[in-house]
TrEMBL record:
Transmembrane segments: none annotated. Residues 237-303 form the Metaxin glutathione S-transferase domain. The gene is mtx1. This is Metaxin-1. Residues 86-185 form the Thioredoxin-like fold domain.
Length: 311
């Protein structure tokens, strides 16, 4: 036999007799085989494979521009208006300042890969199929994302930056949490309408969501103190606004920058909402503290007109 040649069956020894197991397997195979009459019918009318159905009209479709998922009403998203959530608004403003074209998508924390908003889905690649999705970009990666797009992201080099940023992240944010969630009048008039009502019409579900929101705000405040002192919260926020007002002075943007930076977006995220009368604030102590600083009010107006079309 030549090398590497597959031997023919006639050259092999005769096969051994089938074992009982093989005989049983053969019977099972015959049992499930297609009966001859049915097979004849299938041969005459072959099975056709139809193309898959298109996605429903309401299903999300790949976007040609990046999509920023934020807390926002549908009509406001369509018009590019500011989000009603400070964390979302900060990064929405940043993308506008950086010149990153994007669309807004109303969402909730349940849709986020990290459990919080905002997050951004990059534009769909034209070479990708509709089923392929891009990896979401969380908020603390948005600066690098803008830079990769070739956008100029101005950052302040001031050594005082961290100290003033902490005024926003702690003193002003703490007062915000209290005035929105723990002030009964504001919770009913503002927070309930934004975060509770849109999620369910069931009274029990709404009561549960309300309790969760208020408990979460209280727990967050108690991380920094053993007791929630309302007067102290508002006093510290008032001092923070005063310090930021002095820092801004007569300049258009903070730290004397020629264009707004992420810091400007950070303070705008609160000043815009506190000065937005359409939100329906009832207890306005924090709002009044802000309005006493005319240059902070004007700073908010400049950003609103320049980057949100005066929405």
């Amino acid at each position: 036999m030549p090398p590497n040649k597959i031997p023919d069956n006639k050259d092999e020894a005769p096969p051994p007799a089938q074992s009982s197991f093989s005989q049983q397997t053969s019977k099972v195979r015959n049992f499930f085989s297609i009966p001859a009459p049915v097979k004849t019918l299938f041969d005459k009318v072959p099975v056709l494979t139809y193309p898959s159905n298109e996605l429903p009209q309401r299903a999300p479709k790949p976007a040609r521009i990046p999509s920023l998922y934020v807390f926002i009403k549908e009509e406001d998203a369509a018009a590019g208006r500011p989000s009603y959530n400070p964390s979302c608004l900060k990064w929405q403003a940043f993308l506008n300042i950086a010149g990153v074209n994007h669309r807004l998508v109303p969402s909730s924390n349940h849709a986020s890969p990290t459990g919080v908003l905002p997050f951004l889905l990059p534009a769909a690649n034209s070479s990708n199929s509709p089923q392929e999705t891009s990896a979401p970009i969380i908020s603390n990666k948005l600066i690098k994302y803008a830079e990769k797009l070739g956008k100029t992201v101005v950052e302040t080099s001031s050594m005082r930056y961290e100290a003033y940023q902490s005024l926003i992240d702690h003193r002003i944010r703490s007062a915000w949490l209290y005035t929105l969630y723990l002030e009964p009048l504001n919770f009913s008039a503002v927070a309930y309408q934004l975060y509770v009502s849109p999620n369910s019409s069931n009274p029990l579900v709404r009561a549960s969501i309300s309790h969760q929101l208020r408990s979460a705000a209280e727990a967050e405040l108690l991380k920094h103190t053993s007791i929630i002192d309302t007067d102290d919260l508002y006093s510290e926020a008032d001092k923070a606004f005063e310090a930021l007002s002095i820092l801004l002075g007569g300049d258009s943007w903070f730290f004397g920058c020629s264009t707004p930076t992420l810091f400007d977006a950070s303070i705008f995220a609160y000043t815009q909402l506190l000065l937005d009368d359409e939100l329906g604030w009832k207890e306005k102590k924090l709002c009044r503290a802000l309005r006493r600083r005319a240059n902070l009010v004007q700073h908010r107006e400049r950003l609103l007109v320049k980057y949100f079309g005066g929405s």
